[in-house]
Each structure stands twice: as structure tokens, then as C-alpha cells.
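S.,

As promised, the zinc ion run. Input:
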Amino acid sequence: MIFNVEQETLPREELEAIQLQRLQNLCERVYANVPHYREQFIKAGVTPADIRSLSDLSKLPFTEKQDLRDNYPFGLFAVPKENIVRLHASSGTTGKATVVGYTQRDVNNWAELMARSFMAAGASRSDFIHNAYGYGLFTGGLGVHYGAERLGATVIPISGGGTKRQVSLMDDFGATVICCTPSYGLVLHEAAQQAGIDMRDLPLRVGIFGAEPWTDEMRNDLQDKMGIDAVNIYGLSEIMGPGVSIECAVAKDGMHIFEDHFLPEIIDPVTGEQLPPGETGELVITTLTKEGIPLIRYRTRDITSLNYTPCKCGRTHVRMNRITGRSDDMLIIRGVNVFPSQIESIILETEGASPHYQIIVKRDGNLDTVEVQVEIDESLFSDAIKNLQKIEMRIQKTIKEFLGVSSKVRLVEPRSIERSQGKAKRVFDLRDKA
Ligand code: ADP
Ligand code: K
Ligand code: ZN
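Predicted complex:
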């Protein structure tokens, strides 16, 4: 089922024609209304009239998170302030918050894209959508909320926290769709277990998880634990919020980017050069229709690749593969690049290890040290120490074998690692950043 059949199944040629026309219009709007962009265009020696084909995109300057910070709070807005109907701000996972503004049309488009997302995930107007994304300045809660209403479904605006109550309301109301971060999904499952509820017995059938990196191994785990189809949703406040892209439940193989609104590229994060289709690099997005704070070639710092092969769901929009990490998240351990998600995959594939973990990086003299703390699966807690050591050794060995770094793996007691209600903080890099 496709929410907007016409837009979501456009033949590539027609889609590109729409993209070009919107890109040209965007360039004119930012050149006329945003001093920052006018300066950047002049610096790059380009005017809106120079954009004659989509390949001219590479002539345009990049926008970085720092540009939003430098123009804090409203410097990049492209419309008079009275046309802004809502503000959101990023949670500031990496540094100072950035503020974004939406016009009424932006908010309407967002609701449509979220409605498209729900339908791609296999939801419909008869669903009960339990929305445990945080409501507030974070885009997750309200983004999902208005999309669910646009779809015509019943939304339960529970927000994050109060986990015990969430579980009993899911049971009472018969939620069929759950929306939250994958890490909070695990927390909900744990609370259900404690309350003697097997989530597989609930009417729940779809999970829409995002806002933080997760792995296919985590997907399998959540699907098993909840008896659902789990799909990946992606977004960021600078570009809109959730609903920039989502997996279709039909293929569950990469997230369709709503290309009539967003123009994606993959670049080499070091040189800034555009990479050919299929190669892995940093995702860069140009917002084609945003009015409040339109962004040209925004560097997301998220590492992925694009898949232009046709999808069996019938959507023609390109698919982005799972984010392996933010380029800012990548750990360099004794010269070796490691993404936390690689460690997550290994942990989840190890029997006896739970999906609750944290990674602690320190510097000992000149040497980087990594400690991976993993909670033991509850069922093994009473096992002989010898068996537990075997699990530690197995994870340690696999990390060394596959990632090329030595680490110390330590099994810790069930429930000893702090639980998050939104994005989990799993990496503690305590090295001096000097
Ligand atoms: P911040 O975390 O900077 O405060 P946002 O809340 O807008 O800002 O988060 C956006 C970021 O969250 C993305 O750039 C990406 O790194 C991460 N993210 C969102 N969805 C996913 C997903 N499905 N998989 C991996 N990472 C994601
Ligand atoms: K997010
Ligand atoms: Zn598809």
C-alpha cells in the first residue's frame, strides 16, 4: 500500500525533472532571502542561473552544522519570522543545539511524509499507534504524531518515560504499532517481561524504530522479542525530522528517501567529492521544498550508501542503506577506525550476551584502551564463572578478528547499565581531545 502513489512511483526521468525545477527555485529563494547563502554562492562563483541540470548541484556550497550554529538562532531562516508556525531544536548529541523553523506548508509536508512512512511500514488508518518518541523540542514525537493523524490512525501520544505505565497502556489499548528508538524498544520489552506480559501475545505487529544507529542483528532481536515487523526510519531535525526516509515492510532492505522533497548525494567525507552510486560515504541532503529553513547540500555526517535498483514494493525512490555511524561517532583506536555499530553486531551475535552494552575508550599513557561492558543475558546469570569468561573471550576474540582492535570485554550484571528513554548513550570516549 502506497500513500501517495503518484509521487512515490514516479519514473526516474519525471522525478528528476521535478527535482531540477525545485532545486532551481530553491537556489533563487535562498539567494534572495538568506544572506549566508548569498555570500556562499558569491564565494563559490555561482548564481542560481548556473543551475541548469542536476549535475550542477556539485557547484553549490555545502552547509554544515556549524553554519546553523554560527547563525543561531534564526539566521538561516528564509521567510519572515511571522510565517514560522513551529520551532524545533536538535537534542545536541554532538555540541550546542541547533534551531529549525517550519512554515505551515513545511508542517503539512512533514505530516504527509510521515503518513507515507507509516504506510510503507505496513500501517493503515485502522492502526493504534503507540508513540513513545519524546514530545517537545525533539522532532521525533510531534513528527510521528501529525503523520499518524494524517494517516487517519489512532495515535497514543505517550512520549518517552514512565515505562511501566507504557507497557500496561499498550496492553489495555491494544497498540498495533510501536514507535520509539530501538534502545527504548528493548527497555519496554524488559518492563513487559517484569510485568509478566509477553509482548508477542499483544496485538502489536509493526515497530518503527529510528533516531539512533542500530543493526540488523538488533532488528532480529526486536522482531523476535515483540513478534513484529521492525522497520528502520531515518531523519534529522536540520532536514525536517523523522520521515526523511523509511524502509518498506515489503523489502526491509534500505530506506526509501522521499526524493520529491529531498535530493541526496554521497560524498567522500574527507575530500568532499561526490561518489558514484552505490559507494559508501557521507550522506548530503538538499531540501527541495522546505520554506522555513531550506538547506543546500547539508552534510549529515551520517555514513551510508544509496541503492538505485528497483524495489519490489513499487516505490521508485532511492533507498539508503542502514547508517553505519556518524562520521563524528567513528572511534579511532590505535589508528584503526571502528564504528560502535560493528561492536553491536558482534555482541548481538554472541549467545549469552544481552543487547545492553557500553563502550568505554580511555588513553593509558600513549595507548588507547577499549573496554566493552555487556550485560549478561538474565537466563545465564547464575551460570558458572567459567562459562561467563568463555563469553567474554568469545566477544573479545571476534572484535579482534573482525575489527582488528584489542579490547577488554567485561560481562556485567543484568540491568546494571543505565537505560535510556530516547537515544541511548553507548560510547564514552574519555580520551583527552587536545
Ligand atoms: P541530534 O541527535 O544531533 O540532536 P537529531 O535528533 O535530529 O539531532 O538526530 C539526527 C541524527 O540521528 C541523524 O543525523 C542520525 O545520526 C541519527 N539517526 C536518525 N535516525 C537514524 C537511523 N534510523 N539510523 C541511524 N541513525 C539515525
Ligand atoms: K533523530
Ligand atoms: Zn520498497
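The first strand starts at residue 84 and ends at 89. Residues 140, 211, 235-236 surround potassium ion (ligand 2) (CB under 6 Å).

- D.
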